[in-house]
Amino acid sequence: MKYSQKQAVLVSVFIIALILSPIMENWASKPKDSFPLSYYPMFSKKRKATYGLYYFVGYDSVQNRYKIPYKIAGTGGFNQVRRQIKKEARSDRANAFTLKVAERIARKKGYPYSKLVRIELVKGYYHLENYFSKKDTLPVHERKLAFHKIERQ
User: Fold this and answer.
1) 3-class DSSP assignment, residue 126
2) What is the pTM of this model?
3) Cα–Cα dist 125/29, whole Å
4) How far is residue 59 from each of residues 38, 63, 112, measured CA to CA in Å?
């Protein structure tokens, strides 16, 4: 099928208008996000300078700090385990959850797990712009939520 130049222009303008139409949701009092025409609020949403994240850290006998991989805390993929950690950290089960993770670490034989004597569940706050642009990966602030000694048999 062959289109005239006028028909091609009209179809092009219509498609461009359709693609750009979700932009109007940015000014709506109650924006609606729908597939496939989305205004992507996850990219346009105003965010705080710092972002809080729950995770585990371990310490050896001389207080060297080690990051505990998410796989030790739960089963599933990265985001799934992070949600599990967050849920437990915000509940009254944070101490019991930390004990479970400490018991898993106690059964591990390799480095650095065999050296760890204490584990902490913390909420770390990170400055996102500095984290990604300046590679400043240290938390701005950390809050200890639960801790447990690692006891080996």
Assistant:
1) strand
2) 0.71
3) 31
4) 45, 5, 9
